[in-house]
Amino acid sequence: MVDQLIQQCFQMFPVDNLALVTGSLIVTDDNGCLLIFFLKKALTWPFEKDPAHMGLEALQHLVKEYPPPSPKRTDKRHNDKEHRDGTGVHHLAFWHAVGHGKSGLDHPSNGAVLSKDLARVACRKQNAMATFLNAFTPITQAIGALFELVDRENYQQYNTLFHQLADNTTAKSIRTTKRNCFLGMAILTNLCCRPHRDQNDILDGWVADVAFGDFEGGQLQVPQTGRQFELRPGDVIFMRSALLQHSVAEITGHRFGVVYFTHASLMDI
Questions:
Q1: Domain locations along the chain
Q2: Hey, is 188 helix, strand or coil?
Q3: What is the CATH number of domain 2-8+19-97+109-266?
Q4: Cα–Cα distances in angstroms (integers) from residue 161 to residues 110, 154, 166, in the given order
Q5: Which of 2, 49, 110, 138 is the most buried (most CB within 10 A)?
Q6: Residues in Cβ contact with 160 at an 8 Å cutoff, skipping those fewer than 6 apart
Q7: For 71, which DSSP code?
Q8: Cβ 229 vs Cβ 181: under 8 Å
Q9: pLDDT for 197-231, tens place per residue?
Q10: Per-residue pLDDT tens for 96-118?
């Protein structure tokens, strides 16, 4: 089925009548290849307590000090409608910026840079980002521990890459724990997403999604599996984001969606 998913990368599937998943579930293809881990209340597993409230407080402080930037007009995932005030997305990442690929230079970063939201903003906003990353560390630690649990081989590859780059490039500014493994984080404030695949992500890799706040809706819709996932505060979902079409349903209330990712271009630096 993975080959089939690759062949389907330019097809779009309807999100009507998807089965709602409210409990932990592992989704595989017909050959047993792992596609999704949906883990209920998993943030508590590494700590035996729930760090979700710390994550929410960190997010609330961030958007107070640094309101979320509006999605780019060219980003078709978000720009199909008018957004309410306070809606937007922060990117905290080390990546190859759009239109700027690998440099070919003999340098550890090979053209990769910190995202604009981290590097090309006023000092007050940079400080808000640094404060957020440190306050959000328990969530990042939990994500790393859970990633190792579900796919130890990939976790070790991601973790090694992260720390190699953090030791030698500006990626050091996003390092907060030895459990760091993803080089990017997208923080979506009250944003739903249109159906898409994350084509810059690692084809056979993973992203991790978590949600915070007091909200209804916001289900993660994955039509190629015939399912939508009730992602609530404390839950974690690992997904093959480059292979699987996914979207976030309409939201009422206040929701933060946090996506941990690493772009494929970084894996062979």
A1: 2-8+19-97+109-266
A2: strand
A3: 3.60.130.30
A4: 14, 11, 8
A5: 138
A6: none
A7: P
A8: no
A9: 998 999 889 999 999 999 999 999 999 999 999 99
A10: 976 545 545 445 577 899 999 99
